[in-house]
């Protein structure tokens, strides 16, 4: 049943060998293989590893003729299995994998004889690939990846079933001739090579969950999965396996779910955001992190911000308006972190902010790259890239969470969210739909002082001893999406997806330095994509995407308390307080084409072209007061307001041309060269008229070089360089709002702003070690980032914040490290720490450090079983003391110090109940630590911004 | 795991806090912070109400220094002005509610006149002068009201200038009298662009800070207004004030005292602490 052979080319060596699906525990495993065309082969080695261990090498001894044999010692044959591949030492010194590879080894299950599958549910020809999930869930999804690779209905029709658990040494010789035929996938496009190196067969029908995942994965938006699974094996083995995306995707996902279920080699989390291909985090040419569903659940994360806050080098804070702000490596700027939702940009064209704090229930994975991503994504992928990948696995999933925040008055401020999603595949048609609803009343914490303390007291609006107000954190969120894709056989696959996000929430405090409880912020996002992809002959793929999005924000801020007076007289009395409202609508149309081309088996080229038209189609700023502080009968634009929808800044055409080549020079050494050329349309402020009608195309070149060395199977080293850029947002370029005493804290647009660039140098290492049953993964990296002409709002005037490029730049350097220890599937501990130092080089030595985000972060977590059915997860998040920056005199005298913090979350989580349900009980900020974030005017809002206190939630998840 | 690895990891964690670094915000802004630049003849209050709602000795010192910044130029300067918001009590490390009688050091003076704005002398029309002062006093509280959040736009004036303000009058008509360098200014101002006064002020005001943009327009760029940026003492307001203090108030006998240059009528006045 199991058979894999190498291409039988005249010169190419090949190995005829079949991996046994199963072996006895504690008995040595004999592996036989026949070498074909081995003239240039000096030696053969089997490299194997037990659960979580690094690879160990044993030579294959020549028995006679071209038959070689190796033995895996008995002490390594432990449940649940071993993995191995065969490598040849060539006469020229190179090492070439001949059978499977380090990245995609063959798997042999080790353990007791399994019960026969129920008749009818699985074909008889395939043993050992399944069992009753209840009896041994850990083995359940474990299938030999080097298997025949047939779909359930196609498999086993001709293969004689090998006896389960028999001595494997005989398998090779015995099964060779019949299986040779059998192994040719009917959909293989290069049958002459007769090789199928797909990751695994799809033998999981006995387990509804596993099969759900397998087939469901096919419909994921990232059809890149397909290519990657395919390509990974192809590149590594040097054997062609031209299969359709679907089957290889299934293979990938099977092995993925196997990893999830077993946590056997879970160190190999994947990222697709760095190269547009799914690749293992440890080997991608970037410093990244990936959180899969199980990890997010173990974190107790409810939203994306909860997950991001435990990524090394990343800190999430909130501002007075309630926005979550993501700081990466010591710098915080909304427009400089690219957020993608299934590859579609979420950052708003106007101000760069992203509606990213979505519930995680709908997400399969969150991928984070620290460092530049412009070589792939162009402008905006500056400090980092976060890709949110939604779940499209077949089946139905639902989750309900309810809980809340205890308030001072003893009442519970309710928070409830629900998730429902379903996906189905019928033949070539795949459908998915999902819905998230989120509603929370939110915390209500005291703000003692604000900028209107004196006025409010003087006007009798409150007593001296009364606080200025309370935070308000109510939120309603709707996230609904759906899609359909259809396989057109040779013409590729066409898909349509659409998503609508709608958020309505309170401002946590208000616009700037006053409490405005009646503020209402709404944000609607519509995303739509039409995609097409097609495999190319020669193991390539071409993809095209047509995307559209529209974002509408409507932000109403209450600037003063009710019944506030700006002077005497009725026209200066504001029953509802002074108010302002900003309504912005932006649209983006994107067309992109990219192609993966395998130039040779070691060299892979990705070419891409993207054209994007962004526009600001509506901008309205209205106030209910005049510039001299009188009440308007109805809100209107103040005198002197510039219409931003006119002029060159309101439209932007981006053209990007990218090429990236991944060249595996030796099996241990991969070089990545990437180059992206971006032409961005920006207003030409040097135009004499000063009207900003003219625009110019600004061209930027963003190179990337990556060197990934697999020094040994346990150790991967990386050396990376990348350049990224971002263009100023229209808000930074042109928004100017007439200044009054009540609407301070504004950016003052500067049409002369230039794009800013960053050069990043990174050195990374990734080590996997095993000791007994436990495995430890250690990752660390050091980085240096030089920002040229960063766009930084520095308050110098006290009323408005003029934006400009800081000519001497900003430099950041630091280290990040993480370690994860897995003792079993349910018991794990992890820790990460990061340290960065950011310096504004324009300043004298004593004022250079940028310390408004924690320079050091430390996060740790532990998951442990409490009996058979319950797990306990505890997560600690710590951050170092924060202090105000000293970039300007005003920053110097607006001092604050936010002490170091440690927040603890704890969660009780059941194992799946009746296979379909999971219950968690979760407490956030368990010890009610008084966490605060910075405010723009610490001299006025003296208590800074109070963050969420203790809260508790109960979640029920169901999946079918 | 190897014990050595564990030890190394723990050592790294222990060292982590030592790697944190913060700016030393107490570093003096000048090289010679302890050098005495002059003497104060009385205690100078630095609270908002005193710098933005009343005459203030340091405000007057700065305005005088501005007035004399271009001494020797072909056309003498008529008026120096500084906005109350330029005088700060926050300090680099500690908030100072007042400055004691006696010697004033260079470091403290630079913390009070903190912003290091450049000084520009420029021609203004009579209308602009009057509008400047109307804007300056429009936020003043009427007698009987409490002084809350006084505006930093309030202007202090140089010697030889007297401003009379009646807070009982409506905004825009509060200036009842103005005498600049001994010359009476017509109230309301004559709309005659040929009547010019040469005024020294910080670039902050000239560029429109504190709401003066509408009044000053592009005077700072208009060659017709003959804008001249000060070169003396590096051209910054604090250095110019320090140099002027050194030459004008060098001893406890010749010490700086507040003068009643702005005469308030029907205006709220900050309550001065009893002299110690």
Automatic annotation (TrEMBL), chain B:
Pfam families (alphabetical): 5_nucleotid_C (PF02872)
Keyword Ribosomal protein part of the UniProt annotation: no
Highest taxon of source: Bacteria
Gene3D superfamilies registered for this protein in UniProt: 5'-Nucleotidase, C-terminal domain (3.90.780.10)
Species annotation: Corallococcus interemptor
GO biological process, one term: nucleotide catabolic process
Protein's name according to its UniProt entry: 5'-Nucleotidase C-terminal domain-containing protein
GO terms of molecular function: hydrolase activity
Residue span, 5'-Nucleotidase C-terminal domain: 52-212
Record has Signal as a keyword: yes
Signal peptide, first to last residue: 1-21
Keywords attached to this entry: Signal
């Amino acid at each position: 049943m199991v058979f894999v052979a190498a291409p039988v080319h005249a010169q190419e060596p090949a190995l005829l060998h079949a991996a046994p699906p199963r072996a006895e525990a504690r008995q040595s495993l004999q592996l036989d293989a026949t070498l074909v065309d081995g003239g240039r082969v000096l030696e053969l080695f089997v490299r194997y590893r037990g659960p979580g261990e690094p690879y160990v090498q044993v030579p294959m001894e020549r028995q006679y003729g071209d038959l070689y044999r190796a033995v895996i010692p008995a002490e390594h044959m432990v449940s649940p299995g071993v993995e191995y591949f065969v490598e040849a030492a060539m006469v020229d010194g190179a090492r070439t994998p001949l059978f499977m590879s380090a990245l995609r080894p063959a798997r042999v299950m080790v353990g007791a004889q399994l019960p026969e599958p129920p008749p009818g549910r699985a074909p008889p020809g395939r043993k050992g690939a399944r069992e009753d999930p209840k009896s041994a869930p850990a083995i359940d999804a474990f299938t030999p990846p080097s298997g025949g690779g047939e779909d359930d209905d196609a498999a086993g029709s001709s293969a004689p079933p090998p006896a389960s658990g028999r001595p494997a040494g005989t398998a090779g010789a015995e099964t060779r001739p019949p299986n040779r035929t059998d192994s040719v996938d009917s959909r293989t496009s290069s049958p002459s090579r007769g090789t199928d190196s797909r990751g695994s067969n799809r033998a999981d029908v006995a387990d509804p969950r596993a099969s759900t995942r397998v087939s469901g994965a096919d419909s994921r938006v990232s059809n890149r999965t397909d290519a990657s699974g395919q390509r990974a094996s192809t590149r590594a083995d040097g054997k062609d396996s031209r299969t359709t995306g679907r089957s290889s995707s299934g293979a990938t996902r099977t092995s993925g779910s196997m990893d999830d279920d077993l946590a056997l080699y879970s160190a190999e989390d994947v990222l697709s955001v760095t190269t547009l291909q799914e690749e293992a985090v440890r080997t991608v040419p970037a410093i990244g992190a990936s959180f899969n569903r199980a990890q997010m659940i173990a974190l107790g994360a409810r939203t994306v911000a909860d997950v991001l806050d435990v990524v090394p080098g990343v800190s999430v804070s909130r501002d007075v308006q309630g926005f979550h702000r993501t700081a990466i490596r010591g710098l915080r700027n909304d427009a400089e972190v690219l957020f993608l939702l299934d590859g579609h940009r979420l950052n708003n064209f106007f101000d760069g902010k992203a509606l990213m704090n979505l519930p995680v229930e709908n997400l399969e994975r969150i991928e984070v790259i620290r460092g530049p991503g412009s070589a792939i994504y162009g402008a905006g992928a500056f400090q980092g890239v976060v890709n949110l990948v939604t779940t499209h696995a077949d089946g139905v999933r639902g989750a309900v969470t309810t809980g809340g925040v205890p308030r001072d008055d003893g009442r519970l401020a309710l928070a409830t969210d629900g998730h429902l999603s379903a996906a189905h595949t019928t033949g070539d048609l795949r459908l998915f739909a999902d819905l998230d609803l989120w509603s929370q009343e939110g915390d209500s914490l005291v703000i003692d002082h604000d900028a209107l303390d004196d006025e409010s007291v003087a006007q009798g609006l409150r007593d001296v001893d009364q606080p200025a107000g309370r935070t308000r954190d109510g939120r309603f969120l709707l996230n609904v999406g759906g899609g359909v894709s259809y396989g057109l056989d040779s013409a590729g696959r066409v898909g349509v997806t659409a998503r609508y996000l709608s958020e309505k929430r309170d401002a946590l405090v208000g616009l700037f330095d006053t409490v405005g409880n009646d503020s209402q912020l709404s944000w609607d996002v519509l995303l739509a994509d039409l995609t097409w992809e097609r495999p190319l002959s020669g193991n390539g793929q071409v993809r095209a995407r047509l995307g559209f999005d529209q974002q509408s924000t409507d932000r109403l801020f209450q600037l003063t308390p009710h019944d506030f007076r700006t002077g005497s007289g009725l026209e200066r009395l504001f029953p509802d307080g002074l108010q302002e409202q900003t309504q912005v609508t932006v649209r983006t149309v994107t067309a992109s084409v990219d192609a993966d081309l395998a130039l040779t088996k070691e060299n892979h080229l990705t070419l891409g072209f993207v054209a994007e038209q962004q526009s600001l189609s509506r901008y309205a700023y209205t106030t209910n007061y005049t510039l001299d502080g009188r009440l308007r009968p109805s809100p209107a634009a103040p005198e002197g307001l510039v219409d931003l929808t006119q002029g060159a800044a309101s439209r932007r055409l981006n053209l990007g041309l990218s090429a990236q080549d991944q060249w595996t020079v030796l099996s241990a050494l991969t070089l990545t060269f990437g180059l992206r050329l971006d032409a961005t349309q920006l207003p030409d402020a040097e135009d004499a008229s000063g009207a900003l009608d003219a625009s110019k195309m600004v061209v930027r070149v963003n190179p990337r070089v990556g060197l990934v060395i697999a020094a040994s199977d346990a150790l991967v080293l990386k050396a990376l360089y990348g350049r990224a850029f971002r263009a100023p947002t229209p808000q930074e370029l042109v928004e100017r709002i007439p200044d009054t005493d009540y609407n301070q804290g504004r950016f003052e647009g500067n049409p002369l702003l230039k794009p800013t660039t960053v050069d990043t140098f990174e050195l990374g290492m990734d080590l996997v070690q095993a000791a007994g049953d436990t495995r430890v993964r250690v990752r660390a990296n050091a980085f240096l980032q030089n920002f040229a002409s960063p766009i930084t709002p520095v308050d110098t005037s006290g009323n408005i914040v003029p934006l400009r490029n800081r000519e001497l730049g900003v430099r950041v350097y630091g280290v990040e490290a993480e370690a994860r220890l897995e003792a079993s599937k349910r018991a794990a501990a992890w820790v990460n720490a990061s340290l960065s130092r950011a310096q504004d080089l324009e300043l004298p030595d004593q004022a250079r450090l940028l310390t408004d985000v924690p320079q050091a972060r430390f996060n740790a977590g532990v998951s442990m079983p409490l009996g058979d059915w319950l797990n306990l997860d505890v997560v600690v998040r710590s951050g170092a003391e924060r202090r105000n920056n000293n970039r300007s005199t005003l920053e110097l005298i607006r001092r604050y110090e936010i002490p170091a913090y440690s927040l603890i979350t704890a969660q009780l989580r059941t194992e799946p109940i009746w296979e379909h349900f999971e219950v968690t009980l979760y407490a956030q900020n368990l010890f009610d630590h008084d966490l605060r974030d910075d405010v723009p005017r610490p001299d006025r809002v003296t208590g800074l911004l109070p963050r969420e206190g203790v809260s508790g939630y109960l979640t029920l998840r169901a999946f079918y | 795991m190897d014990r050595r690895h564990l030890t190394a990891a723990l050592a790294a964690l222990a060292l982590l806090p030592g790697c944190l670094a913060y700016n030393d915000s107490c570093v003096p802004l000048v090289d010679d912070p302890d050098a005495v630049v002059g003497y104060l003849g009385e205690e100078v209050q630095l609270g908002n109400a005193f710098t933005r709602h009343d005459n203030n000795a340091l405000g007057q010192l700065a305005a005088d220094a501005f007035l004399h910044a271009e001494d020797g130029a072909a056309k003498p300067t008529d008026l120096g002005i500084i906005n109350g918001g330029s005088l700060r009590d926050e300090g680099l490390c500690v908030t100072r509610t007042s400055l004691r009688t006696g010697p004033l050091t260079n470091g403290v003076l630079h913390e009070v006149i903190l912003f290091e704005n450049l000084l520009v002398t420029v021609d203004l029309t009579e209308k602009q002068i009057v509008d400047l002062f109307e804007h300056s006093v429009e936020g003043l509280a009427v007698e009987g009201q409490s002084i809350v959040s006084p505006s930093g736009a309030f202007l202090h004036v140089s010697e030889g200038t007297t401003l009379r303000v009646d807070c009982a009058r409506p905004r825009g008509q509060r200036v009842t009298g103005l005498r600049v360098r001994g010359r009476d200014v017509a109230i309301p101002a004559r709309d005659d662009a040929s009547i010019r006064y040469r005024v020294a002020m910080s670039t902050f005001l000239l560029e429109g800070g504190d709401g003066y943009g509408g009044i000053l327009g592009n005077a700072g760029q208009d060659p017709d207004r003959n804008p001249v940026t000060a070169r003396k003492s590096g051209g910054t307001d604090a250095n110019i004030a320090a140099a002027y203090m050194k030459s004008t108030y060098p001893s406890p006998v010749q010490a700086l005292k507040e003068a009643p240059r702005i005469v308030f009528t029907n205006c709220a006045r900050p309550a001065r602490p009893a002299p110690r």
